[in-house]
Amino acid sequence: MRPRLLDLLACPKCRRELRRGDEKLVCATCASSFPIQNNVPVFLSEPVEVVALEHESNALGAEFEEILSRGEALVLHLGAGATPRRYPNCVEFEHKIFRHTDVVGDAHALPFRDNAFDRVFAFNVFEHLRDPWLAAREIHRVLKPGGEVALHTAFLQPLHEAPNHFYNATEYGVREWFRDFTIERCEVSGNFSPGFMLGFIAASLLDTLPQRGAQAEVAGSTIGQWAEFWRRKAAPPAGFNALLTLPAELQKRVSAGFELRARKAGRR
Length: 268
Prior knowledge:
The structure is a single chain. The chain is an alpha/beta fold. It folds into two domains: 42-189, Vaccinia Virus protein VP39 (Rossmann fold), CATH 3.40.50; 194-254, no CATH class. The chain contains nine helices and nine strands. It has helices at 5-8, 62-70, 132-142, 171-177, 194-208, 212-220, 223-230, 240-244, 248-254; strands at 18-21, 24-27, 33-37, 40-41, 75-78, 90-94, 103-104, 117-123, 143-152. α5 packs antiparallel against α9.
């Protein structure tokens, strides 16, 4: 374990002090114990995957790398993945053990003390959380007064990392998740620009088509043709029927929405 880490940690069950034991951490109050695997404290009950050292995730971006490089703030990086560089002032939190992971746990029950961090980063994480409202409250709890959170999350993105892709949020949804914060801005960053959105959706759409002929039909159509069809000013473009008749599992990757029908358990 990294120096100072034990001073930041707390039992996720009762939020009390943890003490170091033989290859485990033990809560001084409720006696819960948590294993240490590969020198990383683990706060999950299920087995934890250890990811190959050569795996590398996307870069954070210049603004956030600069914050870490300055070393002035203690940062919690949720869903850090396999970062290319380790920073002494950054605690990397994950669901797996990557090359620089400091703590493995659940974002809905962060194993850290109240008011512990100056900043929290959470990039491309919240769409994969079952209860983003609860995770946002946990971030609020572990931030110091005046502390800041920086978030990137999906809006118009196809299904990815199934089955753990739960939410695509509008600006208003993101604001709702973080309603306990003073929101300074909620805007579109460069990596989420409409051009990237269009490319992501187009690539995912073509990848769902099992036949090369159908792929070529859709790829050869134009955005203008699809727009005119949507405005009811033109017939469906080439490839429309191929997309309409895709198997249900393929349609779910790039659909506009879902119809749900459900029943309450028990007899009427």
